[in-house]
Design a protein that fits this description.
Layout: H1 3-20, H2 24-39, H3 44-71, H4 92-98, H5 102-105, E1 109-113, H6 120-133, E2 138-142, H7 143-155, H8 159-167, E3 171-175, H9 184-197, E4 202-207, H10 221-232, E5 235-239
Parallel strand pairs: 1-4, 1-5, 2-3, 3-4
């Protein structure tokens, strides 16, 4: 076999093996990297390192994009495009610290508290995006829609399966909890949800209602206190004041 035919056979075998071992980024860029290696007189070790780093980066990007898609975010929002100069009161340093995701390592919660339109949802989505970038799974859910879904799961005998699926999510974001009005069944479901994640997985909640008014969400002050006891233990409460971004044409 001449050199050309031998090289063609080797290339075909390399392509087969890259597909077999599911290395798409090396597969798609192999010829280009080989050419660069030749031009730069790259050593074997450096060449192998470059191939592996390429595959690592590709896998990271695919996982990040898949996590973002599966999270169900309400739009694409980042910390970097949040206007910290607009709300009357917000601790930017605290937000930047939370964006390091240390709170998730410690299984802590975050509650964004403030009137409508001050950026609570934007910040919660932004932190969820950061989590996806770190290859963590996220679920973003409107509070009313989430509770309706879980209530339907009870009727269908599927609540256990729903809870199991949610328990696997690294970060659960429940948006606009202040607009909920629980009955006894939904109250019980919500308490189970909070208890399931307590000191195990992180939770972000946004609300326009101060905690002293959470009895308006639940059936009694006792029920509200039981939820708040677990939600606020190991929690960061971020209070935001100011006018609405929407009313003032900021978004």
């Amino acid at each position: 076999m001449n050199v050309k035919n031998r090289n063609n056979a080797i290339d075909a075998e390399i392509e087969r093996l890259l597909k077999q071992f599911k290395l798409p980024d090396i597969h798609d860029n192999y010829d280009e990297i080989v050419q660069v290696a030749i031009e730069e007189k790259m050593g074997y070790r450096e060449f192998l390192h470059k191939l592996l780093k390429l595959e690592e980066q590709g896998k990271h990007e695919r996982l990040m994009l898949r996590n973002i898609k599966n999270a169900g975010f309400d739009g694409y929002k980042t910390i970097e495009n949040f206007d910290f100069s607009f709300p009357k009161s917000i601790n930017q340093g605290k937000i930047n610290d939370l964006a390091t995701l240390g709170f998730m390592d410690r299984h802590e919660n975050i509650v964004f508290l403030g009137p409508p339109g001050v950026g609570k949802s934007h910040l919660s989505v932004s932190l969820g995006m950061k989590a996806c970038e770190q290859e963590k799974t996220v679920l973003f859910a409107n509070a009313i829609e989430l509770m309706d879904d879980l209530s339907d799961a009870v009727k269908a005998g599927m609540l256990k399966q729903k809870f199991k699926k949610i328990s696997k999510v690294d970060l659960l974001i429940i948006d606009d909890i202040g607009y909920l009005k629980m009955d006894k069944e939904k109250e019980s479901i919500f308490f189970q949800l909070i208890r399931q994640r307590y000191e195990k997985k992180s939770l972000i909640v946004t609300t326009n209602l101060p905690f002293k008014r959470w009895d308006e969400i639940f059936t009694s002050e006792l029920a509200a206190a039981a939820v708040l006891d677990r939600l606020l233990h190991h929690s960061h409460v971020i209070s935001i004041t100011g006018d609405s971004f929407r009313v003032n044409g900021k978004i």
